[in-house]
Design a protein that fits this description.
The protein is α/β, with parallel strands linked by helices. The protein has nine helices and eleven strands. The chain has helices spanning 14-25, 37-43, 58-63, 80-93, 105-113, 122-135, 165-168, 170-174, 209-213; strands spanning 6-10, 29-34, 49-52, 71-74, 97-101, 118-120, 139-144, 149-155, 177-183, 186-188, 202-208. The strands form two sheets. The protein has a six-stranded parallel β-sheet with strand order 3-2-1-4-5-6, sandwiched between helices. A five-stranded antiparallel β-sheet has the order 7-8-11-9-10.
Length: 219
Amino acid sequence: MKNKKQFVVFGLGRFGSSLARELAEQDQEVLAVDSRMESVEEISDFVTNAVCADATEEASFRRLEVQQFDVAIIAIGENIRDSVLIAMQCKEAGVPMVIAKVNDALHARVMEKLGVDRVVYAERDMAVRLANKLVRPNVVDMGELGRDLRLVQRSVPAGWSHKSIGSINIRRRYGVTLLTIRRGDRVISDINADTELEPGDVLLLIGNEEATEDLGDME
């Protein structure tokens, strides 16, 4: 699989364990870490590796060798002290991307001061996604990349089935770019003008906020 990455997930509560499993199901390498053996045992069969360790302790953290991972995700939002200690150590270890679940604006500001690359308000973000699905039933999922860019997954419109990308001209008509096509268990990234869409395809598109707001009107 192209662009395979290594992720380390700290904290195996509902958010952390669900995220670790989803990443593993998408064929990514995942190390799951928690101080509770029960949580580690529950997820061990679903991820690349699962370790019981107190990552707030410097010696235990060093043994994890997180510097070899591409992304560290700190899913310990309920314990600010622990999440801050782990975030600090991840940044010091040189992990390229550090993402932290936070509870509130104060927690987010602390993480941003530490240089965390992205903070996630799990419950708030879930509510936003649910609202988007309710308002735009044809849109499968939506996530923000930055102030003016969004990634959107959208089921292929019925009128596009058995048509080529070139004949639809998505970029010119809608101002968005098609990145990949999910077809069943396959992800098709080698896309050109002759690529033909099929019923049931899910499209991953990128565009600015205004353009992605209009994707529910695709026909």
